[in-house]
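Q: Here's a chain of 153 amino acids. Please give me its 3D structure as tokens.
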Amino acid sequence: MVSERHAIADRIDREHKDIRRSIGQLELNILQRFSEKTFPDWRLTMILDMRDFQSQLLKHFDVEEEGGFLQSVLSALPHAEYQVHALRDEHQEMIMRLNRILDKLRSMQAPSAEIQQELHQDLHGLLRELIQHEEQEHILLQETFYRDIGGPA
């Protein structure tokens, strides 16, 4: 049981790192310069990359919600029920926010430095939200799986 819970914690940590890497790469790509000629390729690449990220994020949220992490938190810390529900709600909010970014990108039919900057700001805002969300999860992860200093719960 302890090794299973430890495996969940390790997987969550690994996925958080992967998500940060992915969104960091998206932030870099969204700021790439493009000409009128290269705009269609840039736009399509960004749409596809955003779809890949959306899938990555949805799968990660499924791991947390269906893979035992949030249930383990509730079992170990019944008083954290409000926090767990808030985290689940944030999952939905972040997916909706990502969908709005993707809609804005899809509606961009011609090169626009202004819209490109808005997309970057929106993506950066999502990154900040994800980091805060992960920090809350990390606290719960530590309290649930590593209650004693230096060892698994």
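Q: Can you summarize the key feature?
A: Residues 61 and 91 are 7 Å apart (CA to CA).
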